[in-house]
Batch of 2 targets.
Target 1
Amino acid sequence: MIDYDGEARDYDTSRGGEPRAQAAADALEELLPEGAYTLLDIACGTGIVTRRLLRPGRTVLGIDRSPGMLGLAAQRVPGGMVCGDAMRLPLTSDSVGAVVIVWLLHLLAAPAAVLAEAARVLRPDGVLITTVDKDDAYFVEDSDIAQITAELRRQYVPHVPDHASRMLDWAAGHGLGLVGETVFPGTGQGRSPRRWREAIEAGRIPWCTYGAPDQVAELSRRLSALPNQDAPRPDPSYRLIALKA
């Protein structure tokens, strides 16, 4: 698990910084309702996206369990940050008009508890927006990286926490349906073969943990044989879905 307190100062610059945050906020705005309401950003991190969601008439709240992250977020959204657990939100039921969850569900072994809390605090006419399929975001089907990682990624599919089909099944069970979706780029986040190999060998790629050691070793060998070892491949394309009763 990432040490978010320890990484807080460098977190934004290591993950696309302002350009990626702006792309995420623009995509969220495509799916957010107009008018006056309270918006909750679950796992808001440093608030780099959260502050871009401020609008006249819209109250924006962020919650995160990392004090290090929230220290930075509080500078961006003064008075709007709360330290807390996404599985026990410190809000009353039916109290917010929108919940956004960006880059969280893929980290959870069982995201249902977080989604249930999000549904609890959401007003009957509110909208829940979340990223899904994050681990697929990097793979353009005709890219060399996509081709040589395909088998290990297929083995991981039954274990993907934020798989879109699972999120939609969960939503249907809570009376929510798909009302919109969009994608946005992870600007500057394309990885080179060398960076992929380093991440895999450091144990930072979830779908590799479900492969046999010899499969992972063979993948590292094939990555090292690709041309242009330090040339980044295409930026990831993240998917957002919007759910509503």
Target 2
Amino acid sequence: MKTSILVLCLCCFSISSFAQRSPIPGLPAVDYQDAGFNSDSIDALIPIMDDFNQLDFRGMVVIKDNNILMEWYYNSHTRSDINDIRSAGKSITSLLLGVAIKEGLVQNLDQDVYSFFSKEKYPSMHEDYKQIKIRDLLDMSSGLDADADDWRTPGNAGQWMGKDEWVEYLLGIPLAKKPGEQWVYADINAALIGAIIEETSGMSLNDFAKENVFAPLGIKKYYWYTNAANQTVAAGTLFLSTVDFAKLGVLVANEGKWGDNQIVPADYIETLLARKVFDLTEISALANAYGMFWYKTQRTYNGKKIDFLYASGNGGNYLVVVPQENMVIALTSTAYGTGYGHRRAQAIVHKLLNALE
């Protein structure tokens, strides 16, 4: 199916969806048949996606071997529209930590959190932070008294995210468990990684990302909430276009490189891909494991085992990276607070991976 036929087909199914394949620097467009996809499987996917009754699905971008294969938008949205990717922003914060290591701001993942902050500047900093390593934060196993599913815990985001200054508050949260032993999903972990980058760089995470990652990747239009104290919410509130979201996945698939520019150290990406600390098979429909603010999965498609990792945000915002196929899938949606947003995204991912020949 040629591009013109694809666009016509999409328009026949829904006037609110369309394909956009104008060039992007570093990411030329090619037909998906030429990249190893089964045409019949993709053709069958088109009407399924156009039959969505919900009006909150925004876009899908598929990139393989640094070529854009599919760039589809729905419900009047376009390439230039930005979307809150919610907790998928945590995975971007993990990439920014890799940049901080490259810049010498952080030495390694075994440094304790306490060592990055001055007791004079943060007098309420708890001594428990001497026990927490950076890797504990990245693996959601800090042991801090914080739980995204329990608003009563003092480290729950509802207790601090609305403050004009929150680092002082966060550094006063005590341990509830021994670090490194249990996976408990909590925004405080990503917030502290962001605070470490801000403390060592002297910049907001927003500005650090712009200078070191977003600008080199040509990401010009975005928003990342930053409070009155110039502290950025590293746990979420990052707004990106679907195609710019996908670019960050390309950075992972290319071992930290964008073109000839090594943006994130290759050994950091290697660790990010390999680290699978906690088994999530009993609590997740898609993930098998977790590590470095990324979910890790292995599934069998058409008789072939495929390992992939993904960033996940409320509402069905997914960034999937399939290293062995050099493939990235970015999905954006505003189905916040619903279960079907995630189910819809996972169904699309499965169908795309099943379409690989």
